[in-house]
Each structure stands twice: as structure tokens, then as C-alpha cells.
């Protein structure tokens, strides 16, 4: 698995404006990413399990960097609603959105669109950039919220997914996490539990 993970991973999407990077993030950089996320995740305002008023919980742990995103209201704010932790303190931070999701082996994320950013950002099709580390994930995507019609691809540790332009509003989600698929050397260097850490970046 270690040797395989050092190779380039190219995934061709039906829409050419959505693609998986041909130059995955090298392991040393992934080590830095994982360690920094752990540090931030343990601080106030770090990882938590998002929930809804009806008591339902998301099947992942989430941490917002920059603007905070509330899954209940589907809106961004400067403070996290669960504990009022201040998330942004400058104009630059207000414009940036980064969300870290941590999945266990039972983690899932239903088909959805990233459409809660500013009207300007959505109209211009500014891209969403996603970085995968740790265990591999079965990733679904399509032009409608229909699992039966969606296409799938495996995202491995180090893969970078970018969708913008006409592909900015694709439906996408995670159906399963592949257990024990993370590169062993990454686990050893970061002490990361065999799980998946995913970061997404976008412009508000």
C-alpha cells in the first residue's frame, strides 16, 4: 500500500472541469497537515460532532477554520453556534472557508451540494478544493441527488479533488470509509488513528 500511495492518482470525471489531481500531496506535507489538524482539533473550537434540532447527528467530526458553517441553518458565521467560540477576527479570515472532517470507519456524508457560499463565489464558479489523508473513501458524485445515478471513485490519501466552473454545483458525498487503507508510514509518523481526515477549502 505504501508504494502504491507514492504513485500519482488520476481520476477522470464526466465533466472535465471536475478532476482529481495528477500530483498528489507528498507524504511529508501530509504529515504536517495531519499534525496541525490534531493540534487545532484539540484546542477550543476544535473537532465536534455536528447535530440537528431533531437530535440527529452527522456521522463525522467537524472543525471549521475561518468562517464557521452551521449545518442546521446552512449559514456561515463568525462564531460557532454550539459554543460561541470566535472563529474569525479579520477581513481575510471572513473571506476564507476551510472545513476539516474526520471520519471513523462508520463515517458517511450524504449527497449534497456546496452552495452556501456568497452569491458572487457561486456565480463565478470559484472552486472547492478537497484534500484527503488517511484511509481511502468511496466518493460519489453526479448532477442530481440520486445515489442510483451517481458515479463513484476511490479517493486515496494524498489525493486532491478540485471542482469549479460548471462543476461547482455537483452533488457529492462519501458512502464508506475503507478500513486499514491508510499508508502505514503516515500512521507511524503522525500517530493518526486508522481513519480519514479530509480538508476542503473555498472562497466565501
TrEMBL record:
PROSITE patterns: FE2OG_OXY (PS51471). One of its GO terms (cellular component) is cytoplasm. Residues 93-204 form the Fe2OG dioxygenase domain. Keywords: Dioxygenase, Iron, Metal-binding, Oxidoreductase. One of its GO terms (biological process) is oxidative RNA demethylation. One of its GO terms (molecular function) is broad specificity oxidative DNA demethylase activity. The keyword Iron applies. Fe cation binds at residues 112, 114, 172. Binds 1 Fe(2+) ion per subunit. Its cofactor is Fe(2+). The keyword tRNA-binding does not apply. Belongs to the alkB family. This is Fe2OG dioxygenase domain-containing protein. It comes from Prunus dulcis. The lineage of its organism: Eukaryota, Viridiplantae, Streptophyta, Embryophyta, Tracheophyta.
Amino acid at each position: 500500500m505504501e508504494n502504491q500511495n507514492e504513485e500519482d492518482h488520476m481520476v477522470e470525471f464526466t465533466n472535465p472541469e471536475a478532476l482529481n489531481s495528477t500530483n498528489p500531496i507528498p507524504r511529508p506535507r501530509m504529515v504536517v497537515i495531519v499534525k496541525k489538524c490534531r493540534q487545532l482539533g484539540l484546542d477550543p473550537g476544535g473537532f465536534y460532532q455536528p447535530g440537528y434540532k431533531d437530535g440527529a447527528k452527522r456521522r463525522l467530526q467537524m472543525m471549521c477554520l475561518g468562517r464557521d458553517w452551521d449545518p442546521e441553518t446552512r449559514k456561515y458565521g463568525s462564531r460557532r453556534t454550539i459554543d460561541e467560540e470566535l472563529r474569525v477576527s479579520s477581513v481575510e479570515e471572513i473571506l476564507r472557508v476551510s472545513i476539516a472532517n474526520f471520519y471513523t470507519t462508520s463515517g458517511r456524508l450524504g449527497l449534497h451540494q456546496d452552495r452556501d457560499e456568497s452569491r458572487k463565489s457561486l456565480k463565478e464558479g470559484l472552486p472547492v478544493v478537497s484534500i484527503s489523508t488517511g484511509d481511502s473513501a468511496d466518493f460519489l458524485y453526479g448532477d442530481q441527488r440520486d445515489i442510483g445515478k451517481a458515479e463513484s471513485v476511490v479517493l486515496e490519501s494524498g489525493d486532491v479533488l478540485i471542482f469549479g466552473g460548471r462543476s461547482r454545483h455537483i452533488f457529492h458525498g462519501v458512502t464508506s470509509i475503507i478500513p486499514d487503507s491508510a499508508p502505514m508510514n503516515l500512521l507511524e509518523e503522525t500517530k493518526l488513528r486508522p481513519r480519514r481526515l479530509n480538508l476542503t477549502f473555498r472562497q466565501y
